[in-house]
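The protein record filed below.
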Amino acid sequence: MTGDHLPTNADIARQFTLLADLLEIDGESSRHRLLAYRRGGARVGQVDESVAGRGVEGRATELPAIRATLQGKIVELTRTGRIAALTRVMERVPVGLADIAGLPGVGPKRARAVWQALGVGDLDGLAAAVADGTLVTVEGIGPKTAGQLADELAARESGEGTGERIPLGRADPVAQRFAHDLGELAVVGRAVVAGGIRRGSETVHDVDLVIETEDPDAVTEAMHDHPMTTELLSSGSRGAAVMTQSGIRVEARFTPAASFGNLLQHLTGSRAHNVRLRELAVRGGLSVSEHGITRAGGDVIRCREEEGVYAELGLTWIPPELREDTGEIAVAESGAFPRMVAEADLRGELHCHTDWSDGRNTLREMVLAARALGLDYIGISDHSVSLAMARGLDADRVHRQWEAIDRINEEFDDIVVVKACEVDVLADGRLDHPDDLLAGFDWVTASLHSGFRQSRDRLTRRVLAAIEHPLVNVVGHPTGRMFGRREGYDLDLDRVVARAAETGTALEINAQPKRLDLNAANARRALAAGADLTIGTDAHSVDELAVRRYGILTARRAGATPDRVLNTKNREEIRIIRERKSSGSALRGRQGPGAAS
């Protein structure tokens, strides 16, 4: 375990992120500098061992996204307890503005506007400006945004706000690492991730583990000595909890094998799901708890597997992702659930980026990584030209990339590189590439990357224009939400999903943990309307291809079966889907590329 005198990875990540936020509020013009601090902070937060220790040894630069400048600041923080650059900007910009900027729908520019217009520099001041109505006088903040901020601030005040929850993409790797390492112990039969992570919840409070063991002390010792641990928080015969380098609390509950299924079910189901189970049990003269199912006469039924718990209540086993009290118990009373999509069903990836635009790996590296995952095809979907900050491709560069793809396809016979693109939907609804260029692609994803403050009607018409274009196959990250930065833009989603179904245009579940867009509720709406889905990683590096796991979890929470997710289909089926859409057989109502103007 790392020495107490070293800053934790969470400490370093917070300082880098705060530095980037305050610099941006202060008007820092170098996007590269801001990205360096943000990427560095994100990377530090994901590392298992002490980054401060590596920095002192001169090895922090071995980590991706950590260059000499950031290593110097890590060492500075470790030796002096502060980062001088952060201290200087804090003298100019109130630290509380970073909290305001982090609220959904605000961001650095609006936070700066609030500060300059009202002198508000912290959340208390913002709450006062909301309450007295002065917030709506700030440019860019209308009654709707002010109302959303009022709700968010009230939720945080009550302890229910998003500020106290951890995104799935941050918590899950920690959970999987602990489950794997503890599962390797000789005294452990099984170590399984439970709680919101197992359900695929977008955010969680902490990491929950269920450990099958007869030796709690040995497991507690292993948790204490784990390289990710900074502090042992609690210990006992029934469980232990630790704090990790990344600032995530990991709680393990111990159980003998005989009641493993009881505890796993209890710790996996949402509160509402478990309440519903208890109500069902009471009607049958039973009592359900984490320790077992008690009959009226006092006999306790202990289950090694979860299936036994549900069977005793007259139910079929309920997939973890559905345990949210949204009707799943009624389905389980009537029979088995249909098989939902699983990661093994994915045949290909249709949305990823290379260093031709804003990706961090080469075309060849991305193809090799997809090949190593056993995928049959990978769609290289670099940005179109109008997204200048992402080095979007113009027609000349598109043709040169196609030539590079042809050479790769000649080399490999076990994976096909699909000529794809992520084309911008412009402010007036037109697509960023002309039709004659779009026709040369094998797959087209259309996405909005700007103009998010347009009216509901205008935004909806932009998305509909993309859906109705015969050469668009899928709409990427359809609502545009980004955790911690903005809510999804205001769309008439009912019109969107209905038209997507009518035209044979898919809607994406973007698997990036910062997006998860469509979310599970909206993906369920799309499926109910008859629209199909894709699961796209939006990977900008080889490592990010692994985030497809989060897309799968979201799709399962929506109840998606494999036949409703297009990239479970083979390459020939994908070709037929594109040809069917481009033929216009379902597009007689298309308004044209300028529909949103």
About this structure: Confidence is low (pLDDT under 50) at residues 585-597.
